[in-house]
Amino acid sequence: MAWFEHLNISPQCHSIIIDQVQSLALEQKHIIQCGINYGKEAFTLYRRNPDMHMLLFTLKGRGILNTPAKQWDLQPDHVIYVPPGYENGFDINPNENHDLIWDMAWVMLEQQSYWDNKLPHEITYYPTQSGSLLFQTIGCLQQALCLGYPLADQLSANITEQLCLLVANRTSPHSPLALQRLERVFQHAKQQLHHPWQVKDLAALYPCSEPHLHRLCQQYYSQAPMARLTHLRMEHAAGLLTTTSWPIQHISDFCGYPNPTNFSTRFKSWSSFSPRQFRSRFQSES
């Protein structure tokens, strides 16, 4: 194929771009640029001879990375690394992506010994748990740069350190991808323990069928999905009972039990203490 540099970005795309002109901390850490793109309909960029290290973290939707030798399907919760000198281009992937979206974060790094010694010498593509946090970190950096001196510089330096940590530790730990996705489902549920969750809601977060979610929970937690959720609710209730003076009714509501009698029964089954007994015994020891 004829390889030529070109750029095509739909008006539906939205981007955050931060470079060394905006942030001295990026220059000090040899980061050329970092950013976020919320791609919609079209987002295409091809380069003949890039002279930087490039990392692309996919959060939502799908992308494609092309080189003269190979094509990569860029899926959520994965990161692809491209060394300097590799001709490449990327687009939104229409396969199983009817809305034509690709939300991704990127980091461009200088060809410099600081990064050359930390990164591989060929294209690599791995699962990652860092993508969502990287998105948030770049967003925080953008907001920090809007503040006045010296707070902007101080915050930017700290946030850039976190950015470097995420890049250096971009690959996931050696836990199964299914377990990582399952953990994200219940992390999401923990943010809304008051919500009347049902198995179908949890399965939609994965996403998978309800029977498959049951199998995964039994495999990794030895519990059914709702039993796992109850365990998380009880753990959170125990923390609130021992670290706050909230009325038990409020804790019951906050943890998803509008009926305090039902909450007390569940909590006693879980801890062998009523909520009042638990607070009396363990709050005094803390």
Automatic annotation (TrEMBL):
Quote the PROSITE patterns the UniProt record gives.
HTH_ARAC_FAMILY_2
**Which domain of life, per UniProt?**
Bacteria
Read off the SUPFAM superfamilies from this record: Homeodomain-like (SSF46689), Regulatory protein AraC (SSF51215)
Coiled-coil annotated spans: none
Entry keywords, A to Z: DNA-binding, Transcription, Transcription regulation
Q: Which Gene3D superfamilies match?
A: Homeodomain-like (1.10.10.60), Regulatory protein AraC (2.60.120.280)
Residues forming the HTH araC/xylS-type domain are 183-281
Q: Name one Pfam family in it.
A: HTH_18
GO MF annotations in UniProt: DNA-binding transcription factor activity; sequence-specific DNA binding
**Database matches in PANTHER family:** ARAC-FAMILY TRANSCRIPTIONAL REGULATOR, HTH-TYPE TRANSCRIPTIONAL REGULATOR EXSA
UniProt-recorded name of the protein: HTH-type transcriptional regulator ChbR
